[in-house]
């Protein structure tokens, strides 16, 4: 690895059990850190993260292939730190990585080539950019960067502490996350599917945007392709693009079960499925829900190459996570449970 380095350091005011909290948060995000004397180590996606705790000094060292990977990984580390200990990252001093004051290296600009309908409630958006190689590695997802209607875009910048700073208030960008459906970095284009729903700023944008319009993108990030020779997956419409891409990237020898819940049969689009995986479509409000259907499947024994993946409404995801972790004994590294949206209370 031709390394680019970023180092963060914090002295004093450290809570008890800091490393244990951080390790737990990493596992919640599907990462399995390695415990080393006095610290933690995590590798993946072309980067290495080392955390060291000595007395009242806490240090983080990030080594990655390039500035884009450094900034992406640093953003993920900061996110996990803030969840582990609120406000901790605000007190860290960073050196290395992208130059302050400039555009983050994981932000690019693309041109809309077209929008087409692929299902009753899905639109497919195709984008082109000379910088699409930026998205060649690093995750399944990216974010659209949409400025408020009628206002000039206020793009993010890297601050003196190495953090990506986003505009707030009237200039705040709308930043919905999507999954790559097709990604051809060498050819300079990609596409993604957008689930239409009323009241969505992104839906309104996709319906009115004209070919040739410019849009900002950031990423890639999060949502690694899940491991496992055997896989159990579930999702509603919001997860359909991610599940479609995971299935398309799965090897021919993978086996398992996939459950997809929709409210409109018109969203049951064709999928590229390995022969050993069965796909079951569920009608919302008729018969078992996602969790009931997934829970009826017997998991392979612990120690075998297995994985459970679910993305849906927040409360269902919480119940599913508790069921598979607490009742079924699924280890943290054997599952991914993500709330893609929240129903009104």
Task: Describe the structure in your own words.
The chain is α+β, with helices and mostly antiparallel strands. It has three domains: 4-96, Alpha-D-phosphohexomutase, C-terminal domain (TATA-Binding Protein, 2-Layer Sandwich), CATH 3.30.310; 107-221, Beta Barrel (Elongation Factor Tu (Ef-tu), domain 3); 230-341, Rossmann fold (3-Layer(aba) Sandwich). It has helices at residues 18-28, 67-84, 201-208, 240-249, 290-295, 314-327; strands at 4-11, 34-36, 39-44, 47-54, 57-64, 93-96, 107-119, 122-128, 141-145, 157-158, 164-165, 177-184, 189-195, 214-221, 230-235, 255-262, 276-283, 306-313, 335-341. The strands form four sheets. A six-stranded antiparallel beta sheet has the order 2-3-4-5-1-6, covered by helices on one side. A hairpin with a 4-residue loop joins strand 12 (177-184) and strand 13. Helix 1 packs across helix 2. The mean pLDDT is 91.
Poorly predicted spans: none
For the record, the count of structural domains works out to 3
Major sheet: arrangement of strands:
2-3-4-5-1-6
Gross CATH architecture of the largest domain? Beta Barrel
Beta-strand content bin: 35-45%
The ordered string of helix (H) and strand (E) elements is EHEEEEHEEEEEEEEHEEHEEHEHE
What is the β-strand count? Answer: 19
Q: Could you tell me the CATH topology label of the largest domain.
A: Elongation Factor Tu (Ef-tu), domain 3
Largest sheet: 6 strands, antiparallel
In DSSP terms (H or I, runs of 4 or more residues), the helix count works out at 6
Radius of gyration: 21 Å
Mean pLDDT: 91
CATH class of the largest domain: Mainly Beta
């Amino acid at each position: 690895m031709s390394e680019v380095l970023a180092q963060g350091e914090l002295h004093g005011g450290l809570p008890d059990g800091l490393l244990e909290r951080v390790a737990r948060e990493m596992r919640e995000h599907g990462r399995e850190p390695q415990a080393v004397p006095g610290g933690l180590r995590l590798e993946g996606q072309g980067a290495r993260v080392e955390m060291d705790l000595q007395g009242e000094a806490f240090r983080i060292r990030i080594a990655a292939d390039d500035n884009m990977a450094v900034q992406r990984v640093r953003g993920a580390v900061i996110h996990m730190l803030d969840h582990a200990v609120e406000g901790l990252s605000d007190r860290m001093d960073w050196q290395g990585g992208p130059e302050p004051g400039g555009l983050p290296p994981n932000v690019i600009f693309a041109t809309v080539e077209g929008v087409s309908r692929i299902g009753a409630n899905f639109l497919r958006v195709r984008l082109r950019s000379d910088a699409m190689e930026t998205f060649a590695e690093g995750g399944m997802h990216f974010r659209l960067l949409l400025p408020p209607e009628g206002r000039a875009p206020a793009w993010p910048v890297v601050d003196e502490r190495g953090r990506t700073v986003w505009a707030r208030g009237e200039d705040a960008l709308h930043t919905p996350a999507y999954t790559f459906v097709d990604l051809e970095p060498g050819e300079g284009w990609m596409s993604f599917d957008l689930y239409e729903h009323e009241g969505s700023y992104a839906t309104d944008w996709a319906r009115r945007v004209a070919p040739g319009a410019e849009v900002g993108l950031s990423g890639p990030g999060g949502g690694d392709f899940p491991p496992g020779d055997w896989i159990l997956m579930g999702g509603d419409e919001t997860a359909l693009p991610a599940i479609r891409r995971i299935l398309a990237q799965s090897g021919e020898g993978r086996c398992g079960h996939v459950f997809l819940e929709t409210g409109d049969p018109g969203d049951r689009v064709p999928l590229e499925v390995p022969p050993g995986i069965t796909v079951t479509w569920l009608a919302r409000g008729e018969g078992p829900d996602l969790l009931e259907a997934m829970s009826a499947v017997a998991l392979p024994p612990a120690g075998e190459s297995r994985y459970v993946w679910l993305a849906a409404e927040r409360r269902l995801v919480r119940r599913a996570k508790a069921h598979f972790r607490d009742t079924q004994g699924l280890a943290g590294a054997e599952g991914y449970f993500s709330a893609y949206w929240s129903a009104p209370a």
